[in-house]
């Protein structure tokens, strides 16, 4: 019989799929998408969750019956909850109230406890997202805070898994790697591995929302979720990417919708952003070039936003391909 011992053992080994329609006329290169929403928790973050927990157990920071406390509202929380549940840890996630109820409900469905904090307080206030998570981590006996923006096991997870998977699946023919930058763990770990293993032949390209610090901005607000920053986290090594491209929300969302409609890939906005950057970088590339672009999560969490015409119009992104042409005709 062929089966996994438990769901957490199914993290990683995600497939590559060739993009066909969005690349037509845009580049001669082969562009392969690494589909991270096929991880059991639905995102690339499952990879770092399992590594951060493994390392904390090894270092004695997390013991049987312990509690994981992390300020997160999204994918990292799901990954941590899934692994924690399999190993009998309690999970407490601190979530700012600006995040939708749906996201909190997902965390609760996995058995995590969710503490909601007000968004409208200063970051250094004890009531803030950071303040509350620090206090819980300090006061709960046996608590461990993975701290994904500073934990070296994030980039390490990608150095040990994502990078080698891409190298093996392309039989060493990958020439470019493109990924968005949030904590920077994905691009730092995967990019470093691919540059090393290829004798610095693989070119690493970061994708960043216009306005974020990684592409020279100040942290100006943007709508694409999970990427971009207004500070420089320890998990990002700016020496790894050969270049970082700034991509507008409008371009990210337009490509996100095209991936769903034309490639059958229902993905989140950071995936559209990464593909938009990949196509920009691949303009003029040769047919021998093999671009690998990482798609961090699926699109179900964005049905009310990127895939909703009303939301898109309200925020000025109304020129993206519509999902509702019959309704538009009848309107
Ligand atoms: N996209 C999404 C949807 C994410 O949740 C994240 C993680 N914050 C990223 C991209 C970026 O990944 P990383 O933190 O490894 O840079």
Automatic annotation (TrEMBL):
<dbReference type="GO" id="GO:0016765">
    <property type="term" value="F:transferase activity, transferring alkyl or aryl (other than methyl) groups"/>
</dbReference>
<dbReference type="GO" id="GO:0006535">
    <property type="term" value="P:cysteine biosynthetic process from serine"/>
</dbReference>
<dbReference type="GO" id="GO:0019343">
    <property type="term" value="P:cysteine biosynthetic process via cystathionine"/>
</dbReference>
<comment type="pathway">
    <text>Amino-acid biosynthesis; L-cysteine biosynthesis; L-cysteine from L-homocysteine and L-serine: step 1/2.</text>
</comment>
<comment type="similarity">
    <text>Belongs to the cysteine synthase/cystathionine beta-synthase family.</text>
</comment>
<keyword id="KW-0129">CBS domain</keyword>
<protein>
    <recommendedName>
        <fullName>Cystathionine beta-synthase</fullName>
        <ecNumber>4.2.1.22</ecNumber>
    </recommendedName>
</protein>
<keyword id="KW-0456">Lyase</keyword>
<dbReference type="GO" id="GO:0004122">
    <property type="term" value="F:cystathionine beta-synthase activity"/>
</dbReference>
<dbReference type="GO" id="GO:0005737">
    <property type="term" value="C:cytoplasm"/>
</dbReference>
<keyword id="KW-0663">Pyridoxal phosphate</keyword>
């Amino acid at each position: 019989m062929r089966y996994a011992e438990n769901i957490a053992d199914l993290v990683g080994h995600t497939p590559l799929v060739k993009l066909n329609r969005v690349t037509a006329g845009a580049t001669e290169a082969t562009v392969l998408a690494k589909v991270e929403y096929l991880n059991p928790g639905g995102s690339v973050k499952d990879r770092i969750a399992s590594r951060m927990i493994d390392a904390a157990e090894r270092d004695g920071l997390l013991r049987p019956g312990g509690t994981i406390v992390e300020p997160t509202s999204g994918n990292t929380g799901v990954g941590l909850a899934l692994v924690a549940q399999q190993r009998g840890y309690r999970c407490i996630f601190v979530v700012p109230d600006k995040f939708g109820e749906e996201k909190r409900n997902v965390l609760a469905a996995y058995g995590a406890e969710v503490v909601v904090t007000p968004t409208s307080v200063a970051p250094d206030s004890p009531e803030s997202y950071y303040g509350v998570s620090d206090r819980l981590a300090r006061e709960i006996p046996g608590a461990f805070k993975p701290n994904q923006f500073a934990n070296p096991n994030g980039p390490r997870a990608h150095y040990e898994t994502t990078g080698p998977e891409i190298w093996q699946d392309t039989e060493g023919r990958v020439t470019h790697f493109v990924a968005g930058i949030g904590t920077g763990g994905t691009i730092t770990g995967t990019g470093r591995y691919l540059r090393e293993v290829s004798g610095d032949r693989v070119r690493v390209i970061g994708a960043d929302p216009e306005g974020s610090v990684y592409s020279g901005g100040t942290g100006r607000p943007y709508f694409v979720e999970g990427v971009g920053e207004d500070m420089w986290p320890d998990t990002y090594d700016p020496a790894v990417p050969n270049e970082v491209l700034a991509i507008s929300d409008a371009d990210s969302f337009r490509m996100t919708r095209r991936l769903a409609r034309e490639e059958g890939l229902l993905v989140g906005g950071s995936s559209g952003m990464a593909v938009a950057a990949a196509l920009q970088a691949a303009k003029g590339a040769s047919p021998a070039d093999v671009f690998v672009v990482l798609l961090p999560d699926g699109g179900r969490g964005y049905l009310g936003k990127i895939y909703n015409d009303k939301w898109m119009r309200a925020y000025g992104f109304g020129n993206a391909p519509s999902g509702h042409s019959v309704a538009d005709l009848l309107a």
